[in-house]
């Protein structure tokens, strides 16, 4: 089979802002081009150097983005050939970008997965974190507080806290796990906004804030067992909260 190279002249991309998750943003743009048939089946992606120039990012970022496309089953890389488009829709088993954040069943399934993964990530973060990791975690908590003061649900800030723990574990697969799901892994916003009065929402979010601080304290002190327990308690409480919502459509 002859594999065509996709012309860089046909690529209309947005250079990536430094405040964004670089690899995730690049992967999202490339995924959109593939699913919209702007890059056709059998065509090769431009070279790493060409993609670096187009997006204004490093080769490391491009490689991480390609890895994410591989995880979706969209491309494959072969030595001496390059990266070729092999599907124009993500494989069914990779549904992270299509999760409905208001579907309670999806929320419960995600939380079951998170309880397994994130308790271990918290343990490893307590053992492997460095000063920069602690600073990042502290900054995410300050951002969480600022969002609450503005009356927001702090969904993005919640994600950033847990993502920082995944990075602090120093296990790249925990980090990739979070990047694939993006903020849909914190899927409370619409349910909470539509079903809690302001006073109840304030209590709900204050509890999350308190639990985040407990997790951070355990990680900061290097206590892996305490970090595991704090994370498990945090996620398990959320699981039961949404499990009750499934049957009663109420948060208490």
Automatic annotation (TrEMBL):
* Annotated signal sequence range: none
Alphabetical UniProt keywords? DNA-binding, Transcription, Transcription regulation
List the InterPro entries hit by this protein, alphabetically.
GntR_C, TF_FadR/GntR_C, Tscrpt_reg_HTH_GntR, WH-like_DNA-bd_sf, WH_DNA-bd_sf
Q: Does the keyword Transcription apply?
A: yes
Tell me which CDD domains the record gives.
WHTH_GntR
Q: Which gene encodes it?
A: lutR_2
HTH gntR-type domain segment(s): 20-88
* Record-given protein name: L-lactate utilization operon repressor
Read off the SUPFAM superfamilies from this record.
GntR ligand-binding domain-like, Winged helix' DNA-binding domain
Q: Which domain of life is it from?
A: Bacteria
Q: Which PANTHER family match?
A: GLUCONATE OPERON TRANSCRIPTIONAL REPRESSOR, TRANSCRIPTIONAL REGULATOR, GNTR FAMILY
